[in-house]
Design brief:
Blueprint lengths: L1 H11 L6 E4 L4 H4 L7 E4 L9 H10 L7 E4 L8 H5 L4 E5 L10 E3 L9 H7 L21 H10 L8 E5 L12 H13 L3 E4 L6 H8 L10 E3 L6 H8 L4 E5 L2 H8 L4 E4 L15 E4 L19 H4 L3 H28 L1
Parallel strand pairs: 1-2, 3-4, 4-5, 6-7, 6-9, 7-8, 9-10, 10-11
Helix pairs in contact: 1-5, 7-8, 7-12
Length: 340
C-alpha cells in the first residue's frame, strides 16, 4: 500500500528519485514498483531496536543528501535512520513520543483517514489539505520473459483458466477458512474446467494438503501445490498468470489486487475497513456472527463460527459472478479492437 504514496510523490515531483528502506522480504515487491529507483535493505528483526545499527545506517546515508523522508511506521525506532541521516524534511504521523525526530509531525484523525492507504498518501500533502478522495491503487509490474522462465521452472503454462488459491494466514487460524470449505470451492472450479494453483509459505503446505485430500481424485491432475515452493518473486509472476484469486485476508491477497486480478477475500476475525484489497473487481465475504470482528489470532471462544458458518456456496457464487464479469469485459474489449 505504500506504493500509492510513491505514485503521488512521483506525480508531484518531476524527475523524482525515490529510495525505499525496507525489510529484506519486501525487495521482490519494490523491484516491481516502477516508481522506486532504489531499495535499501533494513536487515533488522521485527521489533528489534538496535540503536547502533540504525545510527550507522543513518550516517551512511548522510552523503546521499536526500531532500525528504517519509516515515510510514508509527514507531520511535523507525524515525531514527532519517534523523541520523540529517535529512532536512522528515514527515510522519505522531506516535511513541518521536516528535523530536521529525520536522513535520502530523496528528492523525482516524475518522478523516480511515484507511491505511489514505494515511500514507496524506503525508504527500500539506497537513491542512483535504483528505485524498481517490488514492492511486498499487500496481505491480511483471516482465514477460521472467514470468515465462518462472512458468517453465514449475512446468506450468500461461493459460487463462487458472484460479489462484491462497489458503494460508500468517496472522493466525482466526483468519483461515476451513480446508473442507476450500475443497468444496476447488471441486466446483475444477468441475467447470478450471485449473487451480495453490500459493503460500512453507507453513501453508499442510493446509493445502488437507484441501487436496478432499478433492475429487479424478480432478487432482489439474491442481498444483506451490505453497512453500516459490520465492515471493516467483509467486508474483505466477499469480499474474491466473484468471482470478481466492484468498484469506493476507499479504498474497494484496499482491493479487496489485496485479489487477479479480479477488475474492474471506474474512474471519478481521474486516476490510482498514486495509481492503485495492483492486477494481472484488468480492468481500464474511458472516454476521455477533463476536466478529475480534481481530484475534485465535478464536477467543474456540468455535470459529465466523469462518465455519461462511458457507462454500457464497464463494462459489462470488467466483461465478466475478469470472462472468471478467469474460464480458474481455469480449467487449475484443469487439472494440475488431471494430478498430
Amino acid at each position: 500500500m505504500a506504493q500509492s504514496l510513491f505514485k503521488v510523490l512521483f506525480q508531484q515531483h518531476e524527475n523524482a528519485e525515490i529510495t525505499v528502506i525496507a525489510p529484506p522480504f519486501t525487495q521482490p515487491l519494490l523491484a516491481r514498483m516502477p516508481e522506486v529507483n532504489e531499495s535499501l535493505t533494513l536487515d533488522l528483526a521485527h521489533g528489534e531496536l538496535n540503536l547502533k545499527k540504525r545510527w550507522r545506517l543513518g550516517k551512511e546515508l548522510v552523503s546521499r543528501s536526500f531532500d525528504h523522508a517519509y516515515v510510514l511506521p508509527n514507531s520511535f525506532k523507525s524515525a531514527l535512520i532519517p534523523f541520523h541521516a540529517g535529512i532536512t524534511q522528515r514527515t510522519g504521523w505522531s506516535g511513541e513520543l518521536r516528535w523530536p525526530l521529525l520536522t513535520d509531525t502530523r496528528q492523525l484523525d482516524k475518522c478523516k483517514y480511515p484507511l491505511m492507504v489514505q494515511r500514507f498518501v496524506a503525508l504527500a500533502y500539506p497537513p491542512d489539505a483535504a483528505p485524498p478522495i481517490d488514492c492511486p491503487k498499487p500496481r505491480l509490474t511483471v516482465e514477460s520473459l521472467r514470468q515465462t522462465e518462472t512458468l517453465r521452472a514449475f512446468g506450468l503454462q500461461n493459460r487463462s483458466r487458472v484460479i489462484g488459491i491462497c489458503p494460508g494466514a500468517e496472522f493466525g487460524p482466526a483468519k483461515q477458512w476451513p480446508a473442507e470449505h476450500y475443497a468444496e470451492l476447488v471441486n466446483d472450479l475444477l468441475d467447470k474446467g478450471r485449473e487451480v494453483w495453490f500459493f503460500g509459505s512453507p507453513k501453508d503446505a499442510l493446509m493445502v494438503e488437507s484441501i487436496l485430500a478432499d478433492v475429487e481424485p479424478s480432478l487432482l491432475a489439474r491442481c498444483r501445490n506451490l505453497a512453500g515452493r516459490t520465492s515471493l518473486g516467483q509467486a508474483i509472476d505466477l499469480l499474474a498468470a491466473t484468471e482470478a484469486v481466492v484468498s484469506n485476508d493476507s499479504g498474497l491477497m494484496h499482491i493479487a489486487a496489485a496485479l489487477k486480478k479479480p479477488v475474492i477475500v474471506i474474512y474471519g476475525s478481521t474486516t476490510p475497513d482498514f486495509t481492503p484489497p485495492l483492486a477494481d473487481r472484488v468480492k468481500l465475504l464474511s458472516t454476521e456472527v455477533e463476536c466478529r470482528p475480534c481481530f484475534e489470532r485465535t478464536c477467543p471462544f474456540g468455535h470459529l463460527r465466523c469462518l465455519k458458518e461462511l458457507r462454500p456456496e457464497l464463494a462459489i457464487d462470488a467466483a461465478a459472478e466475478l469470472l462472468e464479469a471478467a469474460n464480458v469485459s474481455t469480449e467487449a474489449t475484443e469487439t472494440r479492437l475488431r471494430m478498430l
